[in-house]
Amino acid sequence: GGGGAAANQNAVSSMINRWTGKPYSQRYYEILEKRKTLPVWHQKEEFLQALKASQSLILVGETGSGKTTQIPQFVLEAVNSESSDKRKKMMVACTQPRRVAAMSVSHRVAEEMDVTIGEEVGYSIRFEDCSSSRTVLKYLTDGMLLREAMTDPLLERYSVIILDEAHERTLATDVLFGLLKEVLRNRPDLKVVVMSATLEAEKFQGYFSGAPLMKVPGRLHPVEIFYTEEPERDYLEAAIRTVVQIHMYETPGDILVFLTGEEEIEDACRKINKEIGNLGDQVGPVKVVPLYSTLPPAMQQKIFDPAPPPVKEGGIPGRKIVVSTNIAETSLTIDGIVYVIDPGFAKQIVYNPRVRVESLLVSPISKASAHQRSGRAGRTQPGKCFRLYTEKSFQNDLQPQTYPEILRSNLANTVLTLKKLGIDDLVHFDFMDPPAPETLMRALEVLNYLGALDDDGNLTKLGEIMSEFPLDPQMSKMLVVSPEFSCSNEILSISAMLSDFLLCKHCPNCYICMQMLMHVVEVVMCQIRLSSATVLSREAQKAADEAKARFGHIDGDHLTLLNVYHAYKQNNEDPSWCYENFVNQRALKSADNVRQQLVRIMGRFNLKLCSTEFNSRDYYINIRKAMLAGYFMQVAHLERTGHYLTVKDNQVVHLHPSNCLDHKPEWVIYNEYVLTSRNFIRTVMDIRGEWLIDIAPHYYDLANFPQCEAKRVLEKLYRKREDKDENKNRR
Ligand code: ADP
Ligand code: MG
């Protein structure tokens, strides 16, 4: 009968992928079976009803319940079946605090939807847009959505915005909260879903005026927690020892180790491989995989590979050992983890507004984080978590929650963005946790000194242009004024090298961390790092010296970077040249890409691309002056006692041993302030005292300068200049 034919047709059409018009692949059905077992699938209808019924919605679910991969797809289905207006195609956005997560998850979802990444499903992270006019679902970092809001204040291209990983409380997510609350008032058709891994859900609910809260029950197995009897002196060594012990004595199951950064993780992976290698065939095979934000995407994917099979049939089963930063805490879910090792530390941003220093510090995690970490062990079966600290320390020393980033960051960039978004009254902006007034004041002050805000706090023309660069305000200032110093080509190259994400390697999200550049030469010249991080082998030391001799510029690290970039281009980006010269090709390629994007922004504002004649005496001088025009607030002075003091803040600092200088300049600008047992300034350049009073007289106005040696030197420089002017007048 007719009914049968219709049913048949339905069955056929459901085998056609509506996005591509092609039949679904075998792989699609395989993944679909897996997806259907995820906890969120049991609440699909409930979720869609709730979404229909209200403008904003809070969704809370344990890590791994399928929030990030499934919910956006549910939303997409609902949006598309509802809207009859085909002309107005609107997108679904899903934000991620970490670029790795945005990339990894979008790839996975493209696979789940049986489409090509970059077409229907895309991602957008700073300096990399992998989306097209066909894109209907876009994963993007929270920082990127904020940037989009600068040109599209009502975010009109989206019908639903999902703020994922809200519990991480990154700076950009917190700003988006306040912004979206406003946008929701002006756009009744927009919907916002806030997703979080359990923490603080009620707080979100209160903030979004009682938005409904939906809970996805986790399916966690019990996790047994072990503490150490005594505090561990060296957590890295303790972590490696624990891995080896688990591998020798515990039943099958994969291991997840939390460490703090790339260097440490690579070091740990090497040592684990070595120590387990030494055990021979008494133990099963292992596959040790690192995970951190600057790992290339193909390497990131390895965390999802299965554990290695036994060496011979019926032998001891193999184990996968993932050594990861905080990324694996909630952003990415790895199935099959049974053992978690938690040393209790993570790299976190700290900001001291009094001395204007923002730094990444290895600091103790919160109880909430420790809880999340241990949860990773119980995803597929009962698990064990080894905390490398005492129970007493857990109870007494750990904060209950991680502080939101907005309370511990430099806000200069955020304030510039907010001003550009038209939010003038920062004091009354609806922050979920308002930042300290002192921090806001500091940010306004910095932007005023840079000329981005006038004395009334309004955005200037210069500030307007600066806000268009996805860089910190100092760097964008330097770029915008570089044509005045006839060196915009060179400043572009230096900026690209500095802001290349490989340099920005410990940073979970994009542009707040520009000051935290890593030791430049070390990073650019990757082979040097092949040896252990702490002790350079003799060959590596030789390679480092050679590289320094080849590219090093005695006036500063920024000029060294420029030399490397120029040499790379002059040698036609040749991979074997890179190899022979200890140059990290991947870093240079990516810097080149960044540079092209910055050139495009320069073009939009008719900023001239120009250079000083290379043989001119002014070639490097102009570059150094242009840099100072952006970084005049990051200057240190060499005291007679032989150490450096930062200008105005009078902090004792030391030149980082990695610098390329052959002398100790009287004045240096620096890009990064590194807090360790000693305070280092890294990526430094020699500049002249006279330039300070020429280029930034408003900042070097001695009327409000603390008493110090630098002040006396500046006074002399001012007097010298007055004398000179007088002589000129007399003549
Ligand atoms: P949540 O956001 O709730 O933490 P996700 O949606 O990220 O959960 O993960 C759901 C499932 O998808 C997990 O079992 C995870 O392991 C799996 N998954 C996610 N990305 C990948 C990938 N790239 N490869 C294989 N499995 C993946
Ligand atoms: Mg998630």
Name the hetero compounds present.
Answer: adenosine-5'-diphosphate, magnesium ion
Radius of gyration: 27 Å
Give a quick account of the main beta sheet: strands, pairing sense, barrel closure: 8 strands, mixed
Mean pLDDT: 88
Protein name: RNA helicase
Pfam families: DEAD (PF00270), HA2_C (PF21010), Helicase_C (PF00271), OB_NTP_bind (PF07717), WHD_HA2 (PF04408)
EC number: 3.6.4.13
Domain Helicase ATP-binding: 48-217
What does this structure look like?
InterPro entries: DEAD-box_helicase_OB_fold, DEAD/DEAH_box_helicase_dom, DHX15_DEXHc, DNA/RNA_helicase_DEAH_CS, HA2_WH, Helicase-assoc_dom, Helicase_ATP-bd, Helicase_C-like. Residues 242-422 form the Helicase C-terminal domain. It catalyses: ATP + H2O = ADP + phosphate + H(+). Keywords: ATP-binding, Helicase, Hydrolase, mRNA processing, mRNA splicing, Nucleotide-binding. This is RNA helicase. With 731 residues, the protein is an alpha/beta fold. It contains 27 helices and 21 strands. Strands 4-3-5-2-6-7-1-8 form an eight-stranded mixed beta sheet, sandwiched between helices. Helix 4 packs across helix 5 (99-112) and helix 9 packs parallel to helix 10. The N and C termini lie far apart (110 Å). Mean pLDDT is 88; it is low at 501-536. Residues 38, 61, 63-70, 104-105, 108, 304, 333, 335 line the site of adenosine-5'-diphosphate.
